[in-house]
Amino acid sequence: MAGAAATAGAFLLGEPEPPASAAPAQVVGFHGPHQAGIATPVQDRLHFAAFDVAVGTREELVALLVSWTRAAESMTAGRVSSADDSGEALDLPASRLTLTVGFGPTLFERAGEDRFGLAASRPPALADLPPFPGEKLDPARGGGDIAVQACADDPQVAVHAIRTLARIGLGRVSVRWSQLGYGKTSSTTPAQLTPRNLMGFKDGTDNIAHDDHAALDQHVWVSSADGPAWMAGGSYLVARRIRMHLESWDQVSVQEQEATIGRTKTGGAPLGGKGERDGFDPATLPADSHVRLAHPASNGGVRLLRRGYSFVDGSDTQGRIDAGLFFLAYQRDPRRQYVPVQRRLATDDRLSTYIRHVGSGLWACPPGVSPGGHWGDTLLG
Amino acid sequence: MAGAAATAGAFLLGEPEPPASAAPAQVVGFHGPHQAGIATPVQDRLHFAAFDVAVGTREELVALLVSWTRAAESMTAGRVSSADDSGEALDLPASRLTLTVGFGPTLFERAGEDRFGLAASRPPALADLPPFPGEKLDPARGGGDIAVQACADDPQVAVHAIRTLARIGLGRVSVRWSQLGYGKTSSTTPAQLTPRNLMGFKDGTDNIAHDDHAALDQHVWVSSADGPAWMAGGSYLVARRIRMHLESWDQVSVQEQEATIGRTKTGGAPLGGKGERDGFDPATLPADSHVRLAHPASNGGVRLLRRGYSFVDGSDTQGRIDAGLFFLAYQRDPRRQYVPVQRRLATDDRLSTYIRHVGSGLWACPPGVSPGGHWGDTLLG
């Protein structure tokens, strides 16, 4: 689609465009029963933004979402967003860009105010997350009326997409907070090498695979029986900015690290096992190890689709690296999935010593968009 | 070198390693007359850190630099840094990792104190940068006794390298500040597509090419005649964190943007010209345009080797994206190169309306290391 971008650029400025990069166009389809960017094989880079809505009426909110949808259709296809596109992605292919939208609790009701006549449509599963032991949430890195997850294999493409939506929304939305994720940590493609998080361990070995439709239906996609009807085919997103205390982690032995995680560091095998993907009984792992406590067998079969990214945001005033995992998990019902699992992890997980949750958000991601439709049309249309 | 990493990993933990990524090993040689990471074709990603030294003696400083050099030799070859490597780059190839070190003014003398007996060796060219009009420097993002520039085509490899050096230096150095650069903006490979900065313009079209040895000798490498002798083959690095006011930039027309830069947006041609690389007379560009004012012809022939990266560090409290250009420029003498050029730009450049310099640093980067030698051995050996 670099050619399409070049064409649009030429249209924009009336001059010839030199040959663009030879990289093959990589386009993830925008339309479908589910939003792209959830089951889509995880792209390398992330730019995530939580927006607060400033408009006062439902009609204005719909108009915003229609504008955003049209821009997303263009950008995910590798075309410019409009005639006055900001330009930094002009020469780049689509790079598997996906844009995924979610609606936060405050869009339905904020401080008792039914801003857009949506209070009665708020899904019971979009219940505010409870406080968890040990977290230290920064309100400047949490919440937001609308979340947009931009994933792409090129960071400039993801950054351009979020910037473009912010620009289209100028005066109608404001960016509440945003996060760059430089590298994926949770693959959904088990045939490929499992990425490592900043603790040096493989992450996401037992993640739900992008093509495991039975597991996606069971754990990720909201069914029409779940209700409300407008969420059928959608999913709930929990985001947690998890700061890692890497200086402390780096001081302990590999043996202690492996006992904390429950897997070997180099190979990623469960402790006592041989291969990363060998079956194992989590009850054989240390009682307070992360893999044992987070395992479906320890949580009534509950699973999450994880799509986390590593972040590095400079250094704090003590010279410690401000880095960790920007955890993104999709699920059918956070009340049955993220909340009970995290409650257990927050109290029992040995890993809690080395991490702190510092940002948090929860959003209802509506189903996918049909051609001619727009984000949220099952709720607002 | 993924194989080498796997071997070292197996040595580390005594278990077999699964087949690593099939990506070809991409190793930039560490040793040579000049440090790698200056003329090296610009890699895609950056992690940069400025360290303050906490040790009290010259011997301890040398010991630190020896340890760092040995780790850098390993990591740039795609091997682990040590038996207790933190591990997050274990499966990754060298990814053209380079590590480049520079010594700041405070290493030679701090508040009148000759900490390491180096005051007499301070190069005259390492004169503190003067204040420039319009800058608003954050002391928390400036200075530092030692700078380390890590560049690689994989961000995890660059992040791992800086983290490893910080870890090796624990108790001997502290990170003063650090910066992630997600994408290069200044190519030194004119045969490739010129990257775009976050203003959407091609950046670095007329940069010094990596293989233009005459220009490198004239503008980048310190000669033995320049003095001091220990800097021969080295270079001076100026870093500037340049915040872009992208919301303002996005509000003005493409015509205004092009008049501000002096080149067309889509194609990158000088205004009035046809092709990006066509020769042009800068006097034909608008008098206050960036390209005219920064052009060698407007600066007595002065050139800089630029190696800048785009950054996005979330959003500020007003919801504006904290993004811009992390400018890195190598040169033979900042007093004749960066300082006069920036003095002119700070007062006359129309682009100044849309940017602000918020961080700054200056370092003397010693020449390259010979096998068995160490960073800074011409100064400290």
TrEMBL record, chains A, B:
Domain Dyp-type peroxidase C-terminal: 194-369
UniProt family annotation: Belongs to the DyP-type peroxidase family.
Role of this protein: Involved in the recovery of exogenous heme iron. Extracts iron from heme while preserving the protoporphyrin ring intact.
Co-factor remark: Binds 1 heme b (iron(II)-protoporphyrin IX) group non-covalently per subunit.
UniProt-recorded name of the protein: Deferrochelatase
A GO MF label: metal ion binding
Known cofactor(s): heme b
